[in-house]
Amino acid sequence: MLAVVVAEGVAIALLAILVVGLLRSHALILRALHELGAGLDLEKGGAGRPTGSTTAPLNLQAGVVAAGRPETGAADVVGRSVHDEEVSIPVSGPGRRTLVAFLSSGCSVCQTFWDELAAGPVDVPGGARLVVVAKGPEEESTSRLRALAGDRIEVVQSSGAWTDYAVPGSPYFVYVDDGTIIGEGSSTSWTQVRDLMGQAVNDAKAATRGGRDDLAVVDRELLGAGIHPGHPSLYPERRAGVDADGPRT
Question: Considering just the CA atoms, what is the radius of gyration of the chain in Å?
Fold first, then answer.
């Protein structure tokens, strides 16, 4: 009898250890999922998320990050407007700047941007054209997007653009300058997007200016050394007795 009681006690103890281990494992899994962004939309009031929206909320970063693909050419945005019109928005061309905002109708964080953009004109860095891109009618309600867009927001439905830009989730922003992506990432407010994308624009300007500034430095150094435009040392072929008209006689 004593042996049975002891065996039951041991079994209960082992079962308790197993249950504690499972609970601990479950907690660790939930924490890992939380850190990866799972359930983020629910925590922010996603219970009101409309049915039919399959866009997952994005694990929000500390802010917009510099483009990880600065040399990648950006694709034109091709799709349909919320008024069922075919739309093609070019992003390449001298002086052409486009800020593409990938938003969904169901993401609660996206709602903050819908509200801010619909409230009035916003300051877009570099005077870029602001285009909101949602997924196509097969994944997003066009009538819902039309209501969110109002009269102020340019919205294009294009699942293809999400694929072209490898968008990981919403909200997500991509800044394109003459066909080149110079900044991209996610954030929780327009103010942060504006400030950090503005920094990307300034960095791109500085990089472009650098080439011209380097030439100016060279010119100044040559002048400081007494070598001015037309100086013989700049034309070695003339020192060899050859000029533009051929050998000297």
Answer: 30
Orientation angle between helical segments 108-119 and 142-149, nearest 10 degrees: 40
pTM value is 0.61
The number of C-alpha atoms within 13 Å of 14 and in the hemisphere containing its C-beta is: 6
Q: Does 3.40.640.10 match the CATH number of domain 64-203?
A: no
Query: With b meaning 16 or more CB within 10 Å and e meaning fewer, what string describes 162-188?
Result: bebbebebbbbbbbbbbbbbbbbbbbb
Cα(76)–Cα(79) distance, integer angstroms: 10
Burial degree of 131 (CB within 10 A; 0-12, 13-18, 19+): buried
- Tokens coding 38: 């799972």
SS3 for 135? coil
Residues 104-134 have pLDDT tens digits of: 999 899 999 999 999 988 999 999 999 999 9
Among 14, 158, 19, 190, smallest CA distance to 87 is for 158
